[in-house]
Amino acid sequence: MRAPTAMMGKLIRLIPPDPEKDGRITMTWHQDSGLKRLADTEPVRHFTYKQEREFHEKSLTEFQSFMIWTIADSRLIGNISLDGIDWCSGNAWLGVWIGEREYWGRGFGSDAMAVMLQYAFMEMNLRRISLTVFAYNPRAVHVYKKLGFQVEGCERMWLHRAGKRSDLIYMGLLRREWERNILPET
Amino acid sequence: MDAPLFQAEHLYLSGVDPEEDAEVEAEMTFDLDYAHWFHAEKPSRPLSAAEVKKYYEETQKRSEGAEKVFHFGIRRCEDKRLIGFVRFCQIEWNHAAGRLEMAIGDPQTPESWADEALALALNYAFNELNLFRLAASTPAFDLEASRRYEKAGFTLEVRQREYVYREGRFWDWLLYGMLVDEWVASKGRV
User: Fold this and answer.
1) How far is the alpha carbon of B186 from chain A, nearest alpha carbon, in Å?
2) Would strands A91-98 and A128-134 be described as parallel, antiparallel, or unpaired?
3) pLDDT, tens only, A84-113
4) By the 8 A CB rule, do B65 and B91 touch?
5) Of A58-67, A142-151, A162-171, where does mean pLDDT reach its minimum?
6) Which residues of B touch A176 (CB under 8 A)?
7) Of the residues A66, A160, B17, B176, which has the fewest C-beta atoms closer than 10 A?
8) CA A17, CA B140: separation in Å to the nearest integer?
9) CA atoms of B74 and B77, how far apart (whole Å)
10) A20 to chain B, minimum CA–CA distance in Å?
11) What residues of A are in contact with residue B160 (Cβ under 8 Å)?
């Protein structure tokens, strides 16, 4: 029934977090403030190893979180998660980030998203995936659109970063849209 | 500076008392649409008085911590009876953005009173919390809430398609937003 390549894309594998080992690597990603400003609304700051490890421990029980590993060179390069899971309505919120900059713009994030969507719709049986993205991150908006997400509106001038106000964009993908767009290719 | 923040013509905003109010609010949660505001992302169900009490206590603790939540009871002036709540949550101070949640759990309450409560809430958000923008959300089936937010000057910003499943079908989830300048311009309307 199930292909042995589950949780594997063309470029990456999704592997559950190993809090002790992975925490050492993910804590270094906070040093990249430019990245953090694309991924998080909170003021950019650092976290201790203990905080980072505990975050991954919590992620294993409280939501669905996977580490993104490259297939070719077996490197941990990012994280992808589904949070705020509403089983009643079949909705969850997706968050993804690639912490290692040399892997940006090469399809790794997009590949991780494709694997995660497959998991969300075919294993978790969700009906809808929601996400928010910052208006000053057009690269991410482009990736999400390519995967079939539609812009559903934006909270105007939500973000205040470096003296400028920007919109918080809301996007959504319905299961039937994903089936129509993505399934015929796989 | 001296203008009262909590007093309107027919109602006022107050604190909640875990001992006195829990039972009244628990009774209101038998309206499952009202109870939904206490069960984010979970099936709605009525709360027991003990659960409401625990909710009050946790909210009070949260209001003292870093993650600020400001929760108020809405009461009738005539007999001080609790008829609903107003709360501000998901406040991110660095962006001066926050979210308003409010609901009236007493079906006898005239809709114009809900407008009064909303006017108090907006004044508090922009004049006391000093927010740059305030969000409010509602499922698409709650036409009263949509009407109330639009009348007060909110803009419909996001329509999350088929976001919530209730009573055998999917409904959109509507996100409204208001900027401080818009509130100043529309104050006369509520």
Assistant:
1) 17
2) parallel
3) 999 999 999 999 999 999 999 999 999 999
4) no
5) A58-67
6) none
7) B17
8) 38
9) 10
10) 27
11) 130, 152, 170, 172
**Which tens digits make up the pLDDT trace of B70-99?**
999 999 999 999 999 999 999 999 999 999
Q: How far does the CA of residue A37 sit from the closest CA of chain B (Å)? A: 13
Which residues are paired to A81 by β-bridges? A65, A95
List residues of B whose CB lies inside 8 A of any A CB.
Answer: 41-43, 92, 94-97, 132-133, 135, 155-166, 170, 175, 177, 179
Q: Alpha carbon of A45 to those of A48, A57, A96, B96: distances in Å?
A: 10, 20, 19, 18
pTM over 0.90: yes
Indicate yes or no: CB of A41 within 8 angstroms of CB of B92: yes
Q: Which of B156, B160, B166 sits opposite A130 (nearest CB)?
A: B160
Q: Are A65 and A59 in contact (CB under 8 A)?
A: yes
**Chain B residues near residue A150 by CB distance under 8 angstroms:** 161
3-state secondary structure of B139: strand
Top residue of B33, B41, B172 to mutate, by most chain A CBs within 10 Å, is: B41
From the CA of B81, how many Å to the nearest CA of chain A? 33
Q: Where are the alpha helices (DSSP H) in chain A?
A: 19-29, 33-39, 49-62, 108-122, 138-146, 175-181
Burial class of residue B5, CB neighbours in 10 A (0-12, 13-18, 19+): exposed
Q: Which pLDDT does position B190 carry in this prediction?
A: 44
Chain B positions touching A84 (Cβ under 8 A) are: 41
Angstrom distance (rounded) from CA A8 to CA B139: 37
Please judge whether B177 and A130 are an interchain contact, meaning their C-beta atoms are less than 8 angstroms apart.
no
pLDDT in tens, B93-124: 999 999 999 999 998 999 999 999 999 999 99
ipTM above 0.90, yes or no: yes
Q: How far apart are the C-alpha atoms of A125 and A179, rounded to whole Å?
A: 12
Interface test with B, best of A83, A151, A156, A178 (most B CBs within 10 A): A156
Q: Count of alpha carbons within 13 Å of A124, Cβ hemisphere only?
A: 26
